[in-house]
Predict the structure.
Amino acid sequence: MKPLYPKILPNATHFIEVSEQHQIYVESSGNPAGIPVIYCHGGPGAGASSDFRRYFNPEIYHIILFDQRGCGRSLPSPSVEGVDMVSMIADMEKIRQFFTVDKWLVTGGSWGTTLSLAYGQSYPQHCLGFILRGVFLATQVEYDWLYRANGVAKFFPEYYQDFLLPLNEQQKRDPLSAYYQLVTSDNEVAAIAACKAWYLYEDRMSSIEHQADSKQEVDDPHIAHCLAMQSAHFFYHNSFMAEGQLLDNIHRINHLPAFILHGRYDMICQLDIAYQLANAWPTAQLQILPVAGHSGFERQTIDAFCQAADKMAEFIGNH
């Protein structure tokens, strides 16, 4: 098993003004003259982990991480005002221009795959390729799987019941809509309780290697608030995309190389979604991780991602 690369510090951190309201936190590490790579974090709203730097060989890669607008260290945070898919894509393009990068490797996990694909389909001329871990295509089937009673709730009924606790009987008929109303409401007590319940629901199901069964409290209330608010905001609005948009537009990037990594026991993002994507993308290679869940930091996932980054560097260097 290939481990994460050793811990490194950023070479520099920046706040880039992307609108009158928003500044996004951006950092760079590794080799400034290396292959540019950007990593898109999940959630939406989860923020970038310092461990994302460690997927990439710092001697070969110029590693760029950022907190998407309205979350993490970006300002203001948490916020959903002026936050949508078009603005997220525009923010990534501003980051590329800030670093004067012509083409970069676009990577991400979970919701980060959604953003990576949406960006790539908007700016294929600036992409070297993709590494996508835990594919999420933002379709109604995926929202229903997560938030309706006949989806992942069948595997985790007790977690789903806890997820429904902040809702009344009427609201339980449409949990996603109800949560959106709660987490964006002026009732701060109700909003915070809902954010914690949302965060715990996803956290408990995210890994088969690092069990969170007994978890009753969130580690970081700010992260929970950002993740729940932005996730509910995006998913309630269908991620500001047409149904099936990412698959329908795969022709825009299907000449580019891609590694698609997916845990067989990923309970957040369904394997068959990744399978559909790989089947529609002739230059993509799907690797099903036989004993992995959703988390980006299980042993098989770390091994697969680091190896994919190494192989992609070799491929890019030869072309």
Summary: Residues 5 and 54 are 5 Å apart (CA to CA). The two ends are 28 Å apart (CA to CA). The domain at 12-139+240-317 is CATH 3.40.50.1820 (Rossmann fold).
